[in-house]
Amino acid sequence: MFVAQRLVVSDENKAPPPTFPQLVSDIQSGDVARATIKTESNEVSATLKDGTKIDTGYIPDDSQALTDALDQAHVPYEVKGIPGSPWWSSLIWLAPFVLFIVFWIYLMNRMQGGGSKVMSFGKSRAKRMAVDAPKITF
């Protein structure tokens, strides 16, 4: 299905994605209503006055030129920075593994009947009989 769709549907009618210089020219001409700058991924998301959304990348060296152009055109913009500390992200990455290990240990204890019977598989459970104990036969 994927190959058939790619053969039938052509990308000739599709407009190429906008470039950073095109975005700057749209800002300077006053066509941009608002913008969001994502410094983590070096992307700019802009909404034109006609409602069209533009997403394009930029070189980190061009960030000052971009903010200057937005300020001169009086376009409101938001800058989304790099998220918090790497400790938090590594904790989130490590949490599923820790939860899995804790769950595994819990299951192993439940299978053993609780307590610390992990290595008791070779021990005999037979009771010792005393010499003077009464013998019961049926």
How would you describe this protein?
A four-stranded mixed beta sheet has the order 3-2-1-4, covered by helices on one side. 39% of the residues lie in helices and 16% in strands. Strand 1 and strand 2 form a beta hairpin. It is of the alpha+beta class. The model has no long low-confidence stretch (mean pLDDT 80). The longest helix is centred in the last third of the chain and has 27 residues.
Order the strands across the largest sheet as they lie in space.
Answer: 3-2-1-4
Number of strands: 4
Compute the gyration radius: what is it? 34 Å
Strand content: 15-25%
The count of helical stretches stands at: 4
Range of helix content: 25-40%
| Shape label | elongated
Helix and strand content put the structural class at alpha+beta
Uncertain stretches: none
Let me know the largest β-sheet: 4 strands, mixed
For the termini, the CA-CA separation is 77 Å
Residue-averaged pLDDT, rounded? 80
